[in-house]
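Write out the 3D structure for:
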Amino acid sequence: MDVARRWAATLADTKGVSLPQEQLEEFLLGVAQDAVRTEPDHGSARERFSKLYSASPIGIALADTDGKIVEANTALGKLLGCRPSALRGRHIPDLGSSDHDVTRLRNGLSQLMTLGQPTQQERLLLDHSEEGTIWVDATLTDLPGDRPGSTYPVLMVADANEIHLLQEQLLHQNVHDALTGLPNATAFGNALETALAGTGGEQVALVYLDVDGFKVINDGLGAGVGDQVLRGVANKLKSVFTGRHNGSVARLSGDGFAVLLRGEFTSLQVIALVEQALEELVEPIYLGGHGIGVSASAGIVVRPVADGGSEDLLRAAEIALHRAKEAGKAQWMLFDPELDARDRGRYQLGAVIAGALENGEFSLIYQPTVKLANPDQLAAVNAGLRWTHPEKGELDSDEFYPLAQITGMTIPLGRWLLAESLAATARWRSRFGDAAPDVCVRLPNRLAIDPDLVLLVKEQLDRHSLPAHALRLCTDRESVLDPRGEVLDSFAVLAELGAQLVLTISGSADLELIPQHRLPVRHVILSGAVIDALADGEDDADVRHLCQLVSRAKELKLRIGAEGVRSHEQAERLRRHGVLAARGSFVADSATGDEVDELIERHAH
């Protein structure tokens, strides 16, 4: 009776909380073992165990020594969708749904009966009579028999179907993109590692795709439409690549997608699929009355599976995609190892610009502009940058400015150029007085559109006690029309300060920017084909074009010059047709600081 009171008190004292499976198992086994150990009143102990066994929310199957079920409680029958009596006579392992589950139960039963090792809780699939299969948490243990030393196996199972499905759902969410349902970057990384883990002669292909101008769709039609477009892109990519060469598509981020292929194929076959995908994307998707078609840029890498790791493959795909975008978008680019080797050298160069500027590797290089009516008189001195690289030697600005644009060093270089140019101008004015030429600085695009341009110029002029008219600032069509900056406002303020503004032009369209935007420009510099056309002679059409430009410049009260003039004969032709000043190799290709001082002194005298 003491045993009954003790177990009744234990089971009753749950404080309104359902007991966990582990505790119920312990309680039931405790009752059974006490029933065996307690000598008097075996019938009462068995009755107590029978009631607990029948009322237990955990499914229980009692078996003989061979593992054949001799009794099953109501909870187990309910869990498996059948009457408990229908389970009698079945062997415990036969409850497993798949061969894998059957094997796990069989092995657990064997270890229990031969080694006396109870099975730890395992999650596996059991057959359900109506629903097919159900996930359960199963435990195999034993109970002592009537004879001393005898034991019988017991299977206890708890419903884990909802928990398992929730875990599967959470796992799916962790590795899939919520918007498109495609694998996400994490899942794609795992798939890539798996694809590269094998050996043999198979090929692997990685394709990076970016939707061109997606921001226009998102901002113009709303984020909701943008999301639907991304779903449409995902579906089109899946329709092209899924099922071909073990193809899988993933969304990496924003409007970026990736495709992974593995098998026996050629670069041409992969390119054909990519071209098909790009054509599919152009076909409009109709949303809210709008037919929306998108273009995409693609970077393609194809190589043997065993040729390198995932980092190299990912980097190659990024480089190929970047080249496709640089080439004009809406196209694909195949990774070229030789081109990549050359680009690595360029990018390494771009990466050390900041250090080179700090270490004094940059210097000013000058090109004089002379008056064509009197070439002994300097009209201005154009200042530019030269990089004296410790390994590559002297580099002109066109070799490093594009790299500076990529690495964000354009503005530091432009600031340094302006500061050093005005310092040199102050030195010339101190030494040569009124005979000192103006300095002309060509603004890099990123500096021309910088909102702090006016402040920067004024600070440098004040620092060197220079009048603003001693500085000429040169820009071009690209900077004037750049929507990112406030070039027109900046130039208006600089003109009010007294700085001379110069526009480089190549034809009538560039010249007409001045009246269209009311640019306070005082000088224009002819450049390119219009100047090159007069290098070796005078064609009537070329001369007529030049004369039209000169005539229009005079109407606008502009002084007109030229750059890239190679010979005195070419300079003379330009002079005859109204060009006032020029620079180029007919005067000097370039001059260092000391050389330009000598040049200014010679012209001043």
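Residues 1-166 form a domain with the Beta-Lactamase fold (CATH 3.30.450.20).
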